Amino acid sequence: MGLVPLEISAMGKALPSTPVLSSELDARLGKAEGYVQKRSGIVSRSLADSHVSQAELGAEALHNALRTAGWKMADVDLLISASAIPVQALPCTATHILRAAQAPDGTPGFDVNVSCASFVAALEVASGLLQIGRYQRIAIVSAELASRGLNWDDEESSYLFGDGAACALVQKGDGSKGILATRLENHVLEGDFCEIRAGGTRANPRAGMQEHDFYFKMQGRKVFKIASRFINDYQDALLAQAGVTLRDVDLVVPHQASHLAMQHIHKQLDIPTHKLMDIYATHGNQVAASVPTALYEALHQQRCKAGDVVMLIATAASVSFAGMVLKL
Fold first, then answer.
1. What's the CA gap between 328 and 325, in Å, rounded?
2. How far apart, in whole angstroms, are the C-alpha atoms of residue 133 and residue 128?
3. Averaged over 238-247, what is the pLDDT?
4. 0.90 exceeded by pTM
């Protein structure tokens, strides 16, 4: 198919607070010193207090990106919210972010949700809209307050997460940069091993619900085992679709799922350390904001530059994969 023109003009990031050290969580949760870091692999992460707004956090990341690009809010003619957890069931999260960002009245926006893989899917949607000329400048915002849905009695999942937001401003560009390949897969027959049941029609006052339906629940070992079964073939297919090999890729930016997942990607996919963007120890799993935050850090730390080939790869709830090979 060849390169699909897409230029990432700027990125922005926002965190809700000063970092919370794992040692602070040890004290807060009544654990021995070093317990949370050993269990999670995280040194620090940002956790929002009850006053932080998800939409305002997304708007902050958006405005940070606008300043970097030298754009005004009026220059954005579409906003895509790529978040796993919405602000509320209705209206869509993009509406809330537009309001918080004080976008010009009438600015369109909608949500793309593939849980942790939402940002990659939103990039694919944006590229298509840019190709047909429907929009010229698109903002993709991933904002997550994972801590709002954590059950701190569930050690398998609660220690892994952090809050945050990231934004990418994209346009078609001159054709020298863009997407070499995108691949989305959903292995829905494998079961729902990561879920929050409430928030829709399944668990609510009329259908019936319990308090734990509002908390994130994960069967980590099952998810890891299933993802491990598919990931090699998935990566091979993505690279073949792009017409490149792993040797041609300058940097791999994965979803920062867990310390174990990052180690597994490094070893099983045979990705050298210098080619792997790993911010998990200082951010935790930021759900859909994970990939764009890691990409922001890669650009900010000059781990990648214009002309480089970068592979984004994300795993998501219901055992889904979303990957993209980009020429920056």
1. 10
2. 9
3. 97
4. yes
